[in-house]
């Protein structure tokens, strides 16, 4: 029987929903031995375990327990520990997803040990090198052997950077595979009743990008904008730990408390968040994945960033990328509340089958007798 041994790497919250359908698809191949490795970049129950439970992911086979730290420290610690694992496990392939520090750290270790790297969600570019994720994306793509794309535009980015066309495969979006698998179950969650919110009559927001929450002026301005929006409709704000710290440091809690209906809550699990997203009047965010999920759900999305690495959400989806100017954000919010929000359609190959395509290609190309 043919065989293939693969380490699947996860580290931070947005990785979990991307790996879940891949783990599932690999289970269908008797010859694939998969090892699930969690670096522990995210470690809080609500940033990690809850997602494993919600997504039905198995407990990681290997947990590195790296935790937080500066970029160098975090990336370096993952590399040191991952190298030991590589020596022991000796996989044929290392599969990484997305653009977090764990993604580049494990890819770099693998390629130097002569093991092929598979990058899922390759080729996305914000063209903003001040974003830590942009550096992770560019470098991971340079050393990957298989580059799986979520959107067609990513191919041009990779070809421009000298990547061989033979390594590139447009397969669709594994994050949307997860969304489609869990959509029905999410709809049954009682979270809106528990919060006393009506479907279609609240705004959902998330903010965590360093460029938005680490600068006191920008962070204050965004929070003030959300306070204003909460005068028109309740605003629900599940807060990332990084953002909670900054809100406290900049003394913004009082503003939030004084706002008409601005609810700052703990981070939500995958199913609860999906339910909230699907039922929001609109979403205001700086997340990458949420731009894609709202496009598939048909919910208007305002992105409070200067750029997006996921242009198909704008050209075909419900996303508008507006920067941080309060006037522009409030104008768009008003437009949406008057029923004039952007309509969109589902991008090509976002059909729930991306993970199957990926595993099929890997098996065809790499399984050995
Ligand atoms: C990381 C990713 C980012 C992704 C985000 C999703 C990088 C460079 N960034 O950013 O691309 O969008 O995850 O959340 O990899 N913290 C906790 N508990 C946790 C995790 C983090 O309290 O479980 C706090 C710590 O104070 C930590 C801070 O959040 O210092 C930031 O965590 P870190 O993993 O460095 O980056 P994120 O901002 O989460």
Q: What does it look like?
A:
The protein is of the alpha/beta class and about 375 residues long. It has two domains: about 5-170 and about 350-365, Rossmann fold; about 180-335, Rossmann fold, CATH 3.40.50.2000. It contains 17 helices and 13 strands. It has helices at about 15-25, 50-55, 70-90, 100-110, 130-140, 155-160, 175-185, 190-195, 210-215, 215-230, 240-250, 255-260, 270-280, 290-295, 310-315, 325-335, 355-365; strands at about 5-10, 30-40, 60-65, 95, 115-120, 145-150, 170, 205, 235-240, 260-265, 280-285, 300-305, 320. The protein has a seven-stranded parallel sheet with strand order 3-2-1-4-5-6-7, sandwiched between helices. Strands 10-9-8-11-12-13 form a six-stranded parallel sheet, sandwiched between helices. Strand 6, helix 6 and strand 7 form a beta-alpha-beta unit. Helix 1 (about 15-25) crosses helix 17 (about 355-365), helix 3 (about 70-90) packs across helix 4 and helix 4 runs parallel beside helix 5. The termini are close together. Bound molecules: uridine-diphosphate-N-acetylglucosamine.
What's the SSE blueprint?
Blueprint: E1 4-10, H1 13-27, E2 32-38, H2 49-55, E3 62-63, H3 71-89, E4 93-97, H4 101-112, E5 116-120, H5 132-142, E6 146-149, H6 153-160, E7 168-170, H7 174-187, H8 191-195, E8 203-206, H9 210-213, H10 216-229, E9 235-238, H11 241-249, H12 253-258, E10 262-265, H13 270-279, E11 282-285, H14 289-297, E12 301-303, H15 312-315, E13 319-321, H16 326-337, H17 354-366
Parallel strand pairs: 1-2, 1-4, 2-3, 4-5, 5-6, 6-7, 8-9, 8-11, 9-10, 11-12, 12-13
């Amino acid at each position: 029987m043919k065989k293939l041994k693969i380490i699947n790497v996860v580290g931070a919250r947005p990785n979990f929903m991307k790996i879940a359908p891949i783990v599932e698809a690999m289970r269908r191949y008797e010859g694939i031995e998969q090892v699930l490795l969690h670096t522990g970049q995210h470690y809080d129950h609500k940033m990690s375990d809850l997602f494993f439970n919600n997504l039905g992911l198995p407990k990681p086979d290997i947990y590195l327990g790296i935790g937080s730290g500066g970029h160098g420290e975090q990336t370096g610690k993952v590399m040191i520990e991952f190298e030991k694992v590589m020596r022991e496990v000796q996989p044929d392939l290392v599969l990484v997803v997305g653009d977090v520090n764990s993604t580049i750290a494990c890819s770099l270790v693998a390629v130097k040990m002569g093991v092929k790297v598979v990058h899922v969600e390759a080729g996305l570019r914000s063209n903003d090198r001040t974003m830590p994720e942009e550096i992770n994306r560019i470098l991971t793509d340079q050393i990957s052997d298989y580059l799986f794309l979520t959107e067609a535009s990513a191919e041009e980015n990779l070809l421009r950077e000298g990547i061989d066309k033979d390594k590139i495969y447009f397969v669709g979006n594994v994050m949307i595979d997860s969304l489609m698998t869990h959509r029905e179950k999410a709809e049954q969650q009682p979270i809106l009743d528990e919060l006393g919110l009506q479907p279609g009559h609240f705004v959902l927001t998330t903010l965590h990008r360093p460029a938005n929450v680490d600068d006191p002026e920008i962070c204050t301005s965004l929070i003030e904008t959300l306070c204003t929006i909460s005068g028109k409709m309740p605003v629900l704000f599940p807060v990332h730990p990084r953002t909670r710290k900054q809100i406290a440091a900049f003394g913004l809690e009082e503003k939030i408390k004084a706002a008409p209906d601005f609810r700052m809550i703990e981070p939500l699990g995958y199913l609860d968040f999906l339910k909230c997203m699907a039922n929001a009047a609109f979403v205001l965010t700086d997340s990458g994945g949420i731009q894609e999920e709202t496009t598939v759900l048909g919910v208007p999305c305002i992105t409070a960033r200067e750029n997006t690495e996921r242009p198909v959400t704008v050209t075909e989806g419900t996303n508008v990328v507006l920067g941080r100017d309060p006037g522009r954000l409030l104008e768009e919010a008003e437009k949406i509340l008057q029923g004039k929000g952007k309509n969109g359609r589902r991008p090509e190959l976002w059909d729930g089958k991306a993970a199957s395509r990926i595993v099929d290609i890997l098996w065809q190309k790499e399984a050995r007798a």
